[in-house]
Structures are given as C-alpha cells and as structure tokens.
Design goal:
- Keywords: Hydrolase, Phosphoprotein.
- Strand 3, helix 3 and strand 4 form a beta-alpha-beta unit.
- The chain is α/β, with parallel strands linked by helices and about 450 residues long.
- The longest helix is centred in the middle third of the chain and has 34 residues.
- It has three domains: about 120 residues, Response regulator (Rossmann fold), CATH 3.40.50; about 120 residues, Response regulator (Rossmann fold); about 200 residues, Hypothetical protein af1432.
- About 55% of the residues lie in helices and about 10% in strands.
Length: about 450
C-alpha cells in the first residue's frame, strides 16, 4: 500500500520543517513548496492526497492557490487544508468559500492539525473511486450534483429516469444512489422499491432528492429502505457530507446489520408460514383460507389507494390473521357442528393468541393491531375488545371484509357454502352495522373487476 502523498505550501521553512517532521512520523510522504506558484506547479505535475497551504505568501496567496486547485478538473477532488495566523471570521469564511476542507489557525496547529489531516486523508481514501449514480430528469440538477460530487472526489454516472437507472445499477453496482422522485418511465419510489428487492443491490445506500417535503412520502420511502432524504434546493456541501456519512465504515456496518435483519425476517416469515400451513393441515376446511384472505385484502387496500408499503404489510397481516388458532384445542377448532357458547368463547381468544405470538417480534409490531382486531364490528359487538367505528384499525377492517367473504363461501360439515351472489348480498346488508362501509364499497368494486379471476 502506498503512503499518502501530502504537499506543504508555506514560505516559512520553519513551519514546513515542523509539519513535515510530524507527518513523516506517521508514514506520510511529504513534498515542500516555498510559495503558492511553486505549489500550484507541483499540483499540476503530481498527484497529492492532500495540500496544506499558508495564506499569506509571495506570488499567489493560499486562497488563490485553493481556487486554482478546485477549478482544475485534474485536481478539483484534492482536499486542501488552509493553515493561517489569521483568526478573523471573514478570513475563515473565505477559506471555506474557495473550497477548503478545513481552516486551522497556526496557534492551534500543534493540537488540531494532525487530527484534521487524518480525518481528511481517511475521507479521501473512503471516497476515492466510489461510484455514485445520480438520477434526475432535470439536466440542470444532474449537472450541478454531478459536478459537486466529482469535485469532492467521487466518480459519477447519471440517468434521467428510474427505468434506465435500474438497468445501470444492475450493470455497475454503484456505491451510492441519489434519485429524484417524480420522473418519467419509472419514478423514484418504484426505483427505490426495485433496488431494495434486488439482493445484489439492496445494500446500496439510496438517497431521495425531492422538491416536495411530504412527510408521508418520506416515511414510506424510508420504510422501503431509503437511507436519507434531501429536499431541493439543497447545498452541495450538504449533499457531499451526507454522501460521506452514508459511505462511512459505521454506516456500512449498519447496512450489513439491516441486510441480516431482512434475512432474519424472511426466515421468520417462513417459520410463521409453516405454522399457518400446520394449522390448515389440522383443519382441512380452512386450507387456503389465509391465502385467499390475503389476496382479497391486497385488492381492497389497492382499491382504497393505500401506499404500496401499507398494502405489503396488510398482506402480511392477512396471511397471519388466524395464526392464533394454533393455540385452540382440537375438540373446539375441529368440531363438526355449531359451537356452544363456551366453545365460542374459546375460539374468540384466537386473535389474542395471534397477537401474543407476534408480540416479541419487533418487525411485526405494525401488523399486530390488524391481527388482534380483525373480528371487531362497527357496532361494538365484535371481539376481543368490543371496539366501535373509528376505534378499529383500518387494516383490521379490510381483513374483516375479506375474512367474512371467504368464510361464507367455504363449505363446512354443518353449513353449506353461500353462493357468490348470496355472500355479496350478506356483506352489503352488514355494511355500517358490522363492516366498514368504505371497505365494503372497495370490496364490491374489486369483485366486479376480479371475481372470476379470484375465484379461479
């Protein structure tokens, strides 16, 4: 591994010697320049990982040197630390305006300089050869963002829509993705979702750039796996700092942990699905019930124009809505006939059992209310808690409608299955009193469109 290359530009030989001595102790190779012009010439002929410059020097000063370095495409990614005797705020401000990575006063150099040097070199090493995919249908935004990132040391590749960007991502596997939301062909939400669902891409930090500040959209994207959200117009320095943070070792560890969490959740869902299958194997009359309820619940949720992430979670909840029946004894669950009041009171505990099974699992927290309350009724005569109207979670109301339909149209030893038409009439009669009217209306629209396909 090559040692870091640092250029020291200062007209004081003493200052140069002191800094050089300190850096060489840390295996850093140092080149000395006695003024700004010599320093500028060195940067044009050689590559440096860092330039440390004084301000007041013969020829050109440190501000102009920094400006020249940042205006040259060959050197614009080279970080510059300004080392000066001047502590005035306006001088420090000017240092950052010309592109300095840090401004250190000489009276604090002994304590602060090397930590800053280490930080800048570590950051430079982190960013070197890192590829960022910038996706926006605005050519101006793409140009500004790409220029800022290149100046900071990143490599950049661009796309104008999510569909093209997804193809590029699969071919190049960028280290970071920056994407707008509203774009042709495929928007940023769908693009983010596709990236997160691809095992080869899901580890890539995904940053959303948007001119809107819709909190619901932000929450939805963060839930889908977006790492950060930048609201336009944003400062390029803010963007670079965000990119550096996302690519830091610490954040990479977090991403690895998230990947492990996702795999564990997949395994967990497999285990729970096995429980559902075991339950349905106990009771042949409920075989496929959870799948049908999940399928109908998804269609109802989509008809209600719910966010795609909510639809996905409703599907989970619907598949697990009867999980608690695994805790119901066979003589009740498998009884070939109507239940007594005592037996029905046992059955009414299955939503509670389901919630208790899911309770210790953090990733299932949002679906527990749907599992717990899918047998509540609008008039308060449901179970287990007798909730009414708006007290009942929407996800539970949706699942309830789907559950009732599938239960009505299933054959049981003690009950002949309803026809589709009879079941639809029954559900229509129960809207407002027992079932959510909005959910019933959405369900009726779904069945008009999908009933033949769903029944098959």
């Amino acid at each position: 591994m090559h040692n870091p290359q640092v250029l020291i530009v200062d007209d004081s030989k003493t200052i140069r010697s002191v800094i050089c001595s300190q850096l060489r102790k840390h295996s850093i190779d140092v080149t000395e320049a006695m003024d700004g012009i010599q320093g500028l010439n060195f940067t044009r002929k050689n590559h440096y990982d860092l330039v440390i410059t004084d301000v007041t020097m013969p020829g050109i000063d440190g501000y102009q040197l920094c400006t020249e370095i940042k205006n040259n495409p060959q050197t614009q990614s080279t970080p510059v630390i300004i080392l000066s005797s001047n502590e005035k705020h306006e001088h420090i401000e000017r240092g950052f305006e010309v592109g300095a990575a840090a401004y250190i006063t000489k009276n604090k150099a002994y304590k602060d300089l090397f930590p800053y040097i280490k930080e800048v070199l570590d950051r430079s090493k982190l960013l070197r050869d890192r590829l960022v995919l910038v996706v926006d249908d605005s050519k101006y935004i793409v140009k500004v963002v790409a220029s800022g990132l290149i100046a900071a040391g990143f490599k950049v590749i661009t796309a104008s829509d999510g569909e093209t960007a997804y193809g590029i991502a699969k071919e190049t596997t960028p280290d970071l993705i920056l994407s707008d939301i509203n774009m042709p062909k495929m928007d940023g939400i769908k693009f983010c979702e596709k990236v997160q669902n691809n095992p080869q891409l899901s580890h890539i930090p995904f940053v959303i750039m948007s001119s809107g500040g819709d909190r619901r959209t932000m929450r939805e994207l963060l839930h889908k796996g977006a790492s950060a959200f930048l609201v336009k117009p944003f400062n390029i320095d803010q963007l670079v700092i965000t990119a550096e943070k996302l690519l830091s070792d610490h954040f990479q560890i977090i991403l690895q942990q998230r990947e492990i969490f996702k795999k564990e959740r997949t395994l967990l869902m497999g285990s729970i699905t096995s429980l559902i299958q075991a339950l349905e194997a106990r009771d042949s009359y409920t075989k496929g019930h959870s799948d049908t309820v999940a399928k109908l619940s998804v269609k109802i949720a989509e008809k209600l124009t719910m966010p795609s992430n909510d639809v996905e979670r409703i599907e989970f909840a619907a598949r697990l809505h009867d999980l608690g029946k695994i805790g119901i004894r066979d003589d009740v669950l498998l009884k070939n006939g109507p239940l007594t009041d005592e037996e029905f009171s046992v059955i009414k505990q299955h939503p509670v059992h389901g919630a208790e099974i899911l309770g210790p699992i953090p990733s299932m927290e949002d679906i527990i209310p749907a599992v717990l309350h899918h047998h509540e009724k609008m008039n308060g005569r449901g179970y287990p808690h007798g909730l009414t109207g708006y007290e009942i979670p929407l996800w539970a109301k949706i699942i309830s409608v789907a559950d009732v339909y599938d239960a009505l149209t299933a054959n049981r030893p003690y009950k002949k299955a309803f026809t589709h038409q009879t079941a639809m009439e029954f559900i229509d009669d129960k809207k407002t009193e027992e079932l959510c009217p909005d959910c019933v209306k959405a369900f009726q629209e779904v069945m008009k469109e999908y009933q033949p396909k769903l029944l098959n």
